[in-house]
Amino acid sequence: MALAGCPDSFLHHPYHQDQVEQTPPVSPRDLAGPGFPAQPDRLTNHQEDDVDLEALVNDVSASLESLYPACSMQSETVPLLQNGQHARSQPPPSGTRSLQPQASPRLQVQRSQPVHILAVRRLQEEGEQFRTSSLPAIPNPFPELCGPGSPPLLTRGSLPPSQAAAKQDVKIFSEDGTSKVVEILADMTARDLCQLLVYRSHCVDDNSWTLVEHHPHLGLERYLEDHELVVQVESTLASDSKFLFRKNYAKYEFFKNPTNFFPEQMVTWCQQPNGGHNQLLQNFLNCSSCPEIQGFLHVKDLGKKSWRKLYVCLRRSGLYCSTKGVSKEPRHLQLLAGLEDSSIFSLIAGRKQYCAPTDYGFCIKPNKVRSETKELRLLCAEDEQGRTCWMTACRLLKYGMLLYQNYRIPSQRKPLLPSFSTPVRSVSENSLVAMDFSGQTGRVIENPAEAQSAALEEGHAWRKRSTRMNILSSQSPLQPSTLSTVIHRTQHWFHGHISREESHRIIKQQGLVDGLFLLRDSQSNPKAFVLTLCHHQKIKNFQILPCEDDGQIYFSLDDGNTKFSDLIQLVDFYQLNKGVLPCKLRHHCIRVAL
């Protein structure tokens, strides 16, 4: 039963329900009384304008029965009289006409008629008994939210990759321990992220910056290839693993000097190369040439601490060891590791963590392994050249032409740049031009080579003027000038108070290429400095001693034969001249704070 304008709590009151059950059905004229005033004559004389509520309720009940066939609507839907009472066991009068509502829209809007909603309310209360299959077949746009065990919120990975978030935050660490959180796109490569960090850190982009995948708990690290997706690599990292932003000058050194990487006794070819720089590259990048790297390696047994020295052969299909001496027959070869679903890492502290026989260890790590060490294939070479050869060969056989394309991208951009390129400058500095004021009137220097020569001459003239000013301002001619003793500390190649072992570690991390160097304070002589230089994959140290001439302090590498007023002049000289060094200074080790 339902009454227009009455609350549901009043309808469910027990005393009211008993009174309603005992009340006999009355006619519309019986409603006229003290509590129900009579209808106006206008409505009485025009009954054809009224809507037959009983027929209307029956139509609504029939509609509900057609929508919900599983529910018995006849037992729940009861016709209402005009006074809102139920006609329970009483059939409708025989003389009742079923009139269709013909009233005007205006009258339908103005009049308020009782509507029977008990069946709908009952369906809502008993909704657990009915399944959604009885409802009309409307496609559900969010099926993952309707399962009984599904949480109301979307979890990571519940959406398809195409609808996932297009950006993600990645935390990058530098060598000095500082870090920066960078928001990157899901399809950003390692090269793109390095260029972004170079731009934000105001560094010079010389295409030698790389991202390092560092696993401190495993003692492993590797340089990401330029084409690898950063987000995809990050999804495979463990909780304590991280990315490092570091220089790597040896990333593509093989394409520059391929003959220095592979000794003749370690390489065999199915098709003998004719010789030459380009032929060696083509044989490695060509799948039909089938190069093989062979030699002895120390191999660690899986799940054990023991190491064995075995004859190993590297092919495109994987890394194999011989079970019988140096035989390479198929029946004597045993697969050690595959390259397709693995990555090549270098060991950070192999002797301490894995009891490695040498310091030149590397590892073939399956991509599915995060923190377990049982499935790591650990190997050790006899020297640094051997380790570099094996790791470079693994990269070439795995990626092939992708590495060469990564190497060629900066080379293709280089011809588009001007011949006289300077470090990245601000917009205001880019508007400046080189001028020559040696004559009566100034002129603009348009030749880039002449502009570079003028800039170098201006720099040397400034140093000479500053040296004379320091000599005049010093209290004693025997006391060294303050500027010449501290000006080098502002340079990136000076690393301050670090040990010999730390300097060697930094050079190894940034690539064992000829001419890679750094300067540091001497541990044996507090007034001296040390130049640490890499040549032929070996690290050498040269001491820079102070010397006195005419009351002025100079610095020299060759016992005073060549003297320099400060370390900046010394570095500039040996970048242009080899002198007593085995090679020129080409690249300097740098650490950038993010």
TrEMBL record:
Organism classification: Eukaryota, Metazoa, Chordata, Craniata, Vertebrata
InterPro entries membership: BPS-dom (IPR015042), GRB/APBB1IP (IPR039664), Grb10_SH2 (IPR035037), PH-like_dom_sf (IPR011993), PH_APBB1IP (IPR039665), PH_domain (IPR001849), RA_dom (IPR000159), SH2 (IPR000980)
SUPFAM superfamilies, per the entry: PH domain-like (SSF50729), SH2 domain (SSF55550), Ubiquitin-like (SSF54236)
Domain annotation Ras-associating: ranges: 166-250
Chain intervals for the UniProt region annotation (Disordered): 18-44, 83-111
Gene field: GRB10
Compositionally biased region (Polar residues): 95-111
Keywords for the protein's UniProt record, in alphabetical order: Cytoplasm, Phosphoprotein, Receptor, SH2 domain
GO BP terms in the entry: insulin receptor signaling pathway; negative regulation of insulin receptor signaling pathway; negative regulation of Wnt signaling pathway
Annotated ranges, domain PH: 290-399
Organism of provenance: Panthera pardus (Leopard)
PROSITE patterns tied to this protein: PH_DOMAIN, RA, SH2
Domain SH2 stretches: 493-589
Keyword Methyltransferase set for record: no
CDD domains (alphabetical): PH_APBB1IP, SH2_Grb10
Cellular location(s): Cytoplasm
Protein name listed in UniProt: Growth factor receptor-bound protein 10 isoform X1
Gene3D superfamilies the UniProt entry points to: Phosphatidylinositol 3-kinase Catalytic Subunit, Chain A, domain 1 (3.10.20.90), Pleckstrin-homology domain (PH domain)/Phosphotyrosine-binding domain (PTB) (2.30.29.30), SH2 domain (3.30.505.10)
Cellular component, GO, one term: cytoplasm
Keyword Nucleotide-binding (UniProt): no
Pfam families: BPS (PF08947), PH (PF00169), RA_2 (PF21989), SH2 (PF00017)
Gene Ontology terms for molecular function: insulin receptor binding
